[in-house]
Amino acid sequence: MRENPNEKKREHFASQFGLVMAAVGSAVGLGNVWRFSYITGINGGGAFLVIYIVCVLLVGVPVLISELTIGRKSGFSSVAAFKTLAPGSFWWLVGALEVFASTLIISYYPVVAGWTLGYVLESLTDWSFVTADPAATFAAFSSGWKAFVAAAAALLCSMLIVLGGVTSGIEKWSSLLMPALGVILLALLARSLSLPGAFEGLSFLLQPDFSKLGVRSVLDALGHTFYSLSLGMGIMITYASYMKKDVDLALAAVSIITLDTLVALLAGLAIFPTVFALGFDPAQGVGLAFVTLPAAFAKIPAGWLFSALFFLLLFIAALTSLISLLQVPIAFLEDSAGLSRTKAALVVCTVATVLGVPAVLSFGPMADVTFLGYTWFNLLDTLANVVLMPLAGFLGIMFIIFRFGVDASLAEFLTGAKKQDNLLARIYSPAIRWIAPVAMSLILLHTLSR
């Protein structure tokens, strides 16, 4: 295996805290606050939470470890990492799938991020408009000119942060935004638990009723595990390439998984007591955040303030994810094409804009325009999340097993570890050889059969 010629010039995260905040910021996106809450509601609450945690431990942990070891061992971002560890082979295509998936997500993710930013402003300036008819309000906002402006603002904010570089941009802002997210989440949690009738929401989330589970619930938990930890997008490989060799990957992996799962749990604890206390249906699906919760906030004193805080929470989660998504194709262009960060960012921003404009229009003038039966927004989302991410994740596991080697990955994982016999190291080998491939096969079959 060749040495990384750019190792001395490559930026590194300045601290383990900054690294963990950046990685957690990537994982803690809209998926953990918004998506986790509504799929938990659809799948019956506490029982789904138990299954999700089991899936995180048995599937999420080994796949996360694999991606971290690939990135740090190679010292490169996604495509170049596979070329470095398996020169002259076709494995670089796995990295290409990840870069492609990230680029597609960057194209439509600012649309949803823009909704959250817009709702912060609407909650503060025109609360009666938000609450008069929440469903009609969301339809009007997502199809109007404000959606364009908000999406552009979200993309611009994340791009400016990434242009600052790994240390001064990504690490600095992630270290500020993630604690801020935690404070807002705790404030919302305190308000939610203070509502009369909140206990019913706590019971829904914390008292498992396994009779409500089906095969679909388990498959949803598997799929969300992969989605929530930012796996199969090249993010963790790219971030790990900026890690120093003395970083304890075991501690980093445990921190990422623990904080990611904790945020999802706290989000559920903040949302479901409010929904139950105010008499709403927890199984509202994707409308839970933009329709149900504004209607719920309208029923409590100073609801506009808690609505603004909630959507600010969502925007911070979306922004930190956008930062990490942008870094994947930018790092690819830096490593593989030799572009400067500024030029690479301009290329990525241009592509995202070209693909993103029709994504915004999918909720307005292009709502009736379909491609293979999907609107442009849904086509990008389906291609990235249903096809490319699970496929890249499965092939990544195959790479570890058949080319890089489970033992080599484990050796890299233990480099810099303070405890050589840690629990993650002991479960990694059987999990990545047997459990993860079966789980990823099920995810692929489930998603492709939709």
Keywords:
450 residues, mainly alpha, single chain
Written account of the structure:
This protein has helices at residues 16-27, 30-42, 46-74, 78-85, 92-125, 127-132, 134-143, 145-163, 166-193, 198-206, 215-228, 235-240, 249-277, 287-297, 303-337, 341-361, 376-404, 406-414, 423-448. It is globular and about 60 Å long. The chain has 450 residues and is mainly α. The chain is built from 19 helices and no strands. The longest helix has 35 residues, at 303-337. It has a domain at 16-107 and 169-293 and 320-343 and 380-448.
How would you sum up this structure in a few lines?
By secondary structure, this protein is mainly α. The protein has helices at 16-27, 30-42, 46-74, 78-85, 92-125, 127-132, 134-143, 145-163, 166-193, 198-206, 215-228, 235-240, 249-277, 287-297, 303-337, 341-361, 376-404, 406-414, 423-448. The protein has 19 helices and no strands.
